[in-house]
């Protein structure tokens, strides 16, 4: 496929990138994302779905800031909104026109019945607030999360992290129970999807009743799990979990950080299943790069005290005028252009191409996608589903970067969540570069 976007001027990483990365690493503390470290490049500017490094090399960006970059790099409406607002008012707790507009815009497109919004500066902060709200509204303490879940790295959110990533981080706050999520490719019950009868739903329902040490305040779930590898559960799963929560007298929290605002081909991740959340957490594409997050809920729930007391739900940076202006531009562009329709269209083309790639490469165990929320599962053997080694994923990633493609890889997944504005030609150009890297890996045999 002819490369329309990729321009390679130097070896990667180039000399200027190497210099800047070395300068940064002299004092920057450890803990950056692995794929950023593996690339070894320093970026200079971005436009749409491309990034250009300081050496002049231009890449197709299918990472999209891990779903943050909803509008694409430097979208004109977004740049104009930030530029104008930065010259008028940036911080402060007082009411501002951007914040007033934003809360009305979001509530106008929110899942049914959710008409109150509080604003924060990070996803984890919003999740912590949602947990407090649920506890205050119900008078209960216990929270149920899911295996494979990710809701942030602060103490309460990290307690809900359903993976080994939290090893060594505890002790965590008490009152957390984790139950199976419907990851059907790697079924937690080792069953086959076609014949399992969704047994994980019944197990999760029973566990919600049997394991907590007291009455449950909330059940929190991602409509589709991002960090677990862009996992897409059967449509029956989420409504069943919401029903289970309500049977227990608990609230159902949908964490829409990555699935909200059109990412999955519909305005909200819950729209695929019809699940009715009581609380929704927002982030990532909400601000299209500017740090802003939120908690959506019903009016009656929002009145719960002490959450509803003065300063009970506030945040130093939450909803400041500059952040609100950025999010307003993001939300209005997504809404007015119905970018979820582009996500559905381009995502379908990408998924079709990924399926063709799966036929060519024996190490692709599964491809999956909903809109521009896609993933590739990498395996040594399709029958056993044994994951490929992390070293193989690093090798694939670096082969992609050297070709001019940025695609998020970590064992055993490749996650693709580009800007909602990406066009089909750019998306398929990126996948053609991934296919080239796969052909090299296939020939080397290193994946076995």
Automatic annotation (TrEMBL):
Cofactor(s) listed: pyridoxal 5'-phosphate
Keyword Secreted: no
GO molecular function: identical protein binding; pyridoxal phosphate binding; transaminase activity
Family annotation (CDD domains): OAT_like
Keywords attached to this entry: Aminotransferase, Pyridoxal phosphate, Transferase
InterPro entries: Aminotrans_3, Class-III_PLP-dep_AT, PyrdxlP-dep_Trfase, PyrdxlP-dep_Trfase_major, PyrdxlP-dep_Trfase_small
Keyword Transferase found: yes
Family: Belongs to the class-III pyridoxal-phosphate-dependent aminotransferase family.
The protein, known as: Acetylornithine aminotransferase
């Amino acid at each position: 496929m002819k490369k329309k976007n990729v321009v390679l001027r130097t070896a990667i990483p180039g000399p200027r990138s190497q210099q800047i990365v070395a300068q940064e690493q002299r004092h920057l503390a450890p803990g950056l994302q692995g794929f950023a470290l593996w690339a070894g490049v320093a970026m200079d500017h971005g436009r749409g779905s491309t990034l250009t490094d300081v050496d002049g090399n231009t890449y197709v960006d299918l990472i999209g800031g891990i779903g943050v970059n909803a509008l694409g790099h430097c979208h004109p409406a977004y740049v104009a909104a930030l530029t104008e607002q930065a010259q008028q008012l940036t911080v402060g707790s007082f009411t501002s026109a951007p914040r007033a507009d934003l809360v009305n815009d979001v509530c106008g497109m929110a899942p049914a019945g959710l008409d109150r919004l509080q604003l924060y500066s990070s996803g984890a902060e919003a999740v912590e607030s949602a947990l407090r709200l649920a506890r205050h509204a119900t008078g209960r303490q216990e929270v149920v999360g899911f295996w494979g879940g990710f809701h942030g790295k602060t103490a309460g959110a990290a307690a809900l992290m359903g993976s080994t990533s939290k090893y060594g981080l505890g002790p965590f706050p008490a009152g957390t129970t984790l139950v199976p999520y419907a990851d059907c490719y790697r079924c937690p019950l080792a069953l086959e999807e076609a014949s399992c009868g969704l047994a994980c739903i019944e197990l999760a329902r029973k566990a919600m009743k049997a394991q907590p040490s007291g009455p449950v305040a909330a059940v929190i779930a991602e409509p589709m799990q991002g960090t677990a590898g862009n996992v897409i559960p059967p449509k029956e799963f989420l409504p069943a979990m919401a029903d289970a929560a309500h049977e227990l007298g608990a609230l159902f929290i949908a964490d829409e950080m990555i699935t909200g605002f059109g990412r999955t081909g519909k305005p909200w991740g819950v729209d695929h299943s019809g699940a009715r959340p009581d609380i929704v957490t927002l982030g990532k594409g909400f601000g299209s790069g500017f740090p802003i997050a939120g908690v959506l809920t019903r009016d009656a729930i929002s009145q719960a005290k002490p959450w509803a007391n003065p300063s009970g739900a506030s945040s130093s940076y939450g909803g400041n005028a500059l952040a609100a202006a950025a999010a307003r531009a993001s939300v209005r562009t997504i809404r007015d252009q119905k970018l979820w329709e582009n996500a559905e269209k381009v995502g379908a083309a990408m998924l079709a191409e990924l399926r063709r790639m799966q036929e060519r490469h024996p190490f692709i165990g599964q491809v999956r996608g909903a809109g521009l929320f896609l993933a590739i599962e990498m395996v040594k053997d399709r029958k056993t589903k044994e994951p490929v080694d992390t070293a193989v994923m690093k090798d694939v990633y670096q082969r992609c970067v050297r070709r001019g493609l940025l695609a998020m890889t970590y064992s055993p997944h490749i996650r693709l969540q580009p800007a909602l504005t990406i066009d089909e030609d750019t998306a398929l150009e990126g996948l053609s570069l991934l296919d080239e890297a796969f052909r090299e890996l296939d020939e080397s045999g290193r994946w076995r």
